[in-house]
Structures are given as structure tokens and as C-alpha cells.
Write a structure and sequence with these properties.
alpha+beta; 3-stranded antiparallel beta sheet; two-stranded antiparallel sheet; 5 strands; globular
């Protein structure tokens, strides 16, 4: 559920800190969850969805096991209370293979596995070699 602000040597640290604070002080949606509605979806990353901030995309990746269409429901909490939005999706059997998409999914999986390892080290569940 974290956020990041990259700071280069040419940036002013106080301005970067201010940008970061302004972005994360009031998320648009928290506690995000996707109800896949029985669609044949596996290996979705990140497994725990981050909070959604203004001007930031929500990027998820996953695999579908067979062609299908239906609606997913994005659920979360906003300042005014519960949020829910239905989004129609189609997993087409005629989609050509995209090597770039496989690479994108693999990078997301690696990121997720690395973050799990980091959390394990931080909580003392694992010890560094």
C-alpha cells in the first residue's frame, strides 16, 4: 500500500517531500478489492492492491485460463463511504500472442515475490543468508 517519489540529485528534497505528502495525504480509494465474478482468472498481481491516489493509475496483471466475458467489480472505500464499480471485460480467444505482455506479467510476479521476501525479512520470519 506504499507510494514512491523519485528524487534525483537535481531535485530539491523539500519540494519532493511536499509533492509526496500532497499526493498521499488523501487517497481517492483505499482497501481496494476486485471481485472477478467467477471469471477464469489466475496469477493476479499485485496480490494486495495499493491505495489509489489522484493522477496515479491502478495497474494489475493476470492470466485468464479460457476465453470468457463478463463483469468485474472494483470495490473499495472512499471518503464518502463504500465504493463499487462494475467494469465489463472480454478475454478473447482470438487475441494474438503478445510477448511483451508475458514479460510485463513476469516482471509483476517477480516484484510481488520480492516484496513478500522483503516483508518476511522485516518481520523476522526469514533470516538473510
Amino acid at each position: 500500500r506504499g507510494a514512491v517519489e523519485y528524487v534525483t540529485l537535481a531535485d530539491k528534497a523539500d519540494e519532493a517531500a511536499h509533492r509526496f505528502y500532497e499526493r498521499v495525504r488523501s487517497p481517492l480509494l483505499t482497501d481496494l478489492y476486485i471481485d472477478w465474478g467467477g471469471l477464469p482468472v489466475t496469477d493476479v498481481y499485485p496480490q494486495r492492491l495499493p491505495d489509489l491516489f489522484s493522477g496515479q493509475p491502478l495497474v494489475i496483471s493476470g492470466r485468464f485460463t479460457q476465453p470468457a466475458s463478463g463483469k468485474i467489480r472494483l470495490k473499495g472505500t472512499r471518503a464518502a463511504g463504500p465504493f463499487s464499480r462494475e467494469i465489463p471485460v472480454t478475454f478473447s480467444p482470438s487475441s494474438p500472442p503478445f510477448d511483451a505482455l508475458a514479460g510485463f506479467w513476469a516482471r509483476r510476479r517477480i516484484d510481488d515475490l520480492m516484496s513478500q521476501d522483503w516483508l518476511g525479512l522485516q518481520q523476522g520470519a526469514m533470516k538473510p543468508a
